[in-house]
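@channel anyone free to eyeball this complex?
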Amino acid sequence: MSEAAVAETAQTDIQNPDPRIIAFCCNWCSYTGADLAGTSRLQYPPNARIVRVMCSGMVHPNLVIDALTKGADGVLICGCHPGDCHYIDGNCKAEKRAEAIRLMLEDFGLEQERFRLEWVSASEGPRFAQVMTEMTEAVKRLPPSPYKVG
Amino acid sequence: MTPMNPPSKNGRKVGAALVVGGGIGGMQAALDFAAAGIKVFLAESGPCIGGVMAQLDKTFPTNDCAMCTMAPRLVEISRHKDIDILTLADVEKIEGEPGDFKVTVKLRPRYVDEEKCTGCGACAIACPLGKLKAPKEGESSKKPKPIPDEYNQGLSTRPAVYIPYPQAIPNCAVVDAEHCLHMSTGKCKLCQKACKADAIVFDQKEERVVLEVGAVLVAPGYELFDPRLKPEYGYGIHKNVITSIEFERILSASGPFLGKVQRPSDKAEPKRIAFIQCVGSRDHERDYCSAVCCMYATKEALLAKEHLSEHLECEVFFMDLRAFSKGFDEYYQRAKKLGVKYTRCRPAAVEEVPETKNLRITYLTEDERKAVKEFDLVVLSVGLRPAPSAQTLAQTFGLKLNPHGFCATEAFAPMDTGKPGVFVAGAFTEPKDIPETVIQASGAVARILELLPEAKGTLIEEKQYPPETDVAGQEPRVGVFVCHCGTNIASVVDVPKVVEYAKRLPNVVHAENVVYACANDSQEKIKKTIVEKKLNRVVVSACTPRTHEPLFRNSLQEAGLNAYLFEMANIRDQCSWVHMHEPEQATIKAKDLVRMAVSKARLLEPLKKKHVPVHKDVLVVGGGLSGLTAARSLAGQGFTVHLVEKEAELGGASRLLRYLLEGGLDPQRHLDDLISEVRSRLNIHVHTGASIASIAGFIGNFTTKLKTASGEEEIRHGAVIVATGAQEHRPEEYLYGKNPGVLTQRELEERLAQGSCKAKTVVMIQCVGSRDEKRPYCSRLCCGMAVKNALKLKALDPAANVYVLYRDVRTYGFRESFYTEARQKGVVFIRYDEDRKPEVAESDGKLSVRFVEPIVRQEAVLEADLVVLSAATVPPLENKELAQHLKVPLDQNGFFLEAHMKLRPVDFATDGVFLCGMAHYPKTMEESIAQAGAAAARAASVLANETMELEATLSEVVDENCDGCAYCVEPCPYKAVTLLEYKASDGAIKKIVEVNESACKGCGVCQATCPKKGIVVRGFRLDQIAAQSEAVLQEQASPETPEPAQQPVGAGEGV
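replying in thread with the prediction:
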């Protein structure tokens, strides 16, 4: 395929050009990584809104499900890499909950791609930007949230 | 010249200390001093603190992200009211006496006003020198050359005005006068025009300050060996030969290639990487081991494989793999399993293949055949050299340097110098890794606290705030301040539109824009507005709360508002800077972020930090060298110590040490002196023959029951130090215990000390019970001990035949020169492989040792009068019980496991409990003494305070929601939640959980586990977080018309 053809396919894949994404980021690693993306002037799509939490293990599954059933097109939880957690192993607990969240998505008729758990360290500005870009692109390929009002 | 603090109140001991060197050691010391009530001047010769650790990508042996662990400390230091950071600072002169020094410090000009600079970086972007391109090869250019960026080791370039690295503290620009165009031509000044804070001051002059301090800690660190001095490796000639620190930057996500592993010549991904060890270590001119390179090369090889692919070939050319510390040997074994190849040799030369820029390494294999191998990239593991300032510092402070140029110290006082009142720590005294440096820094703090017990707290001033306005029951009145950050935000985000939008949000009664929210004039404006407009919630929409929240909270308090009625919207780092080319979208996002912050702010409540009283006594468990040293230090600092020893006598395993590798000092004399001092101290209560029946409580408030010969005893104390030691393993192999000619090293040492060792041929076997399946760790001590005893045998009888059968000789640091000496004196070192261990046999009462000669690979037999086993050092079995009492973990080998291997080497994750000595890992007397000091300093940081301030943002039980299901109890990482049963007024048994706030850290794992909103984290309550995400989903703000759509909420709603 030519480059133009690839771009066209990518364009036609897009079902939701302006998705709303909520990203819960832990204070110690991922939020810091997000700041570093800024200091490094790394550009990524402007669709996500970051909510700062102290630990990824602090994010109640209801927060994710509520956001998705109130119209968020995607929800992201970002925490420290395994072993790096500021609170010993809060991120491991987030990982266990993520499994439960993934199961619940099905019950609510939502695609798996709408939820992600990612590890981003304080020095991974590029990775943060990449995670944001990937997530946004993945959600763009889905239809708008079925729970979106109006 | 003006003194920077008033004379000490008692006229003799000044309650302040000067720390020279802002690396990780100096940072640790500064925090420890401040916690113990000593004012700190932290003097760094460079433009910012952080040292080499700030350049590291990850740290061994856990591959933890270096910046993740370090950044919170940088911020804490920058905000600490009792730590003054002096950068570009050189110490010139010291006068006075210990306890009362005057130190003159020269401050070189930064050409930037630190008070005014906001760290926004606009100057760096404006500087034309930052945009220079390197001239193409062969092109001769008279244009100025790009300036190499020191942080990236010259692999990238920087402007002439710059912030050294993103997290740098002070977060303040610096002008490089050598390169700056204005400085040489008088023109340009583009940075000055770009700086809206008016912070660039080209005519700033050098200054001198005189600091009055009670003591000085010198921790200038080290410099890396310049591999150009080894031309055979081609560094500086062949582009793809780089140093280990350059590779560290290449691996880093914040490095020159954004974490992509590329080689310098053509930016291609390497397929084969070679690491050459001991470049500038273990040679004729530098007869010492740099102690860190084996592990960092292993780490870099692992990370490179992680970055590129498992198929990446990594080969480490080494002489002895020195994985001698906690978790290191396991790390090395893991690297081998993951395919890192280790080849034992010292390469002769590196040559470039001109066509491909690949590199050919020539080396001799172990069986002495010449071999040549090609690689795409060669990394030189450069050694550690004395700090560049070592000579000057030695002269200024009157310190002695050793023959290698490092600061000379003595084994039983490793942080003391010859000069009273001046102490040292870190790689200035010997090459060492981060935890050893952090340990010595805390250890040196303990020595200084011993010197200044009466001066503690005299120069610490409590900050006074006006009484807090009671906002309970008030409708929220939110004030929003939107920052331009010069042009950093305003050039992308339409700030006036954001302000107009904010004005229409529910409960917002005031909104305005400020050029720099963090500048002094804006702070005053915010305070004034709080009072005038009766604001009871404040939102600042600017940069990141991680660095700036404390500043704004302070302003709230100064205006009589509770600090927690504050929220930030990060519209710079997470908006204008990352959507620079989409101003419209960025403006929409900024409005959303403000709306989210306001939504949360409306639900904020005033929070109070609780204070719990602290018991000033301390419990030290273990009466060996470490326990005794920690006890003596704490008693010297004025605390009451309870020293508990299970044996009838004090002294522990050190009782068996008769002399040191370094010679000279007598360990038993030191131990006797220490014991008699501890025994004579009125504030040390020695409990021998005692064991611990139970320990209850938490930091500041422990209650311990002791079992002694005379019955039970109860002690109340505020902190615990675990110093339970370790002992020599009793071997089961090599005919030990069956033939009287088979001894352990300690038994040999005893015989040598008594002069009763008459052996013509002695064969030593290393790693007996270490580095095997049962005990995968290296026992660290045995190589040094074998060299020590071999030298002693040779001293007693130069004709004696001494053989050492080893796997790797791990004489790290300055121990290396004794290994050299032993070989020179004729001690024969022969290597054996793990899978072909030596065999000891007896025939007619005569001992023989059979082994495989590694060069000719043939079996050989040595007849021996004595076979000496370097037996493992093993932790006591009782550790398990103590660990359960204290609720602290052991590692897989049975040693106690610290809170963080790099930065918290003497802390447990449980607050108020510390560890030192061989309870942590096998170590030398010198290392145990340093760590005992460190534990004493860390305990002092708890005990120095009458009360302990707890965080305000901790978990709280919502009584009406909690039904005692206890789902939250087990997941709590700090065991801070317990289940209570009680009888309700109607007689029914009810259950509820309870939070121990002294143990809670506010991580919120409990909150996320609770199905009934029965437990929440203050300041991060479920409803507060939900308000933010719901605000996102409210109808999207258009860039033009504001459409706030919320119903006002009462202040008390929520929990």
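from a first look: Chain A has five helices and four strands.
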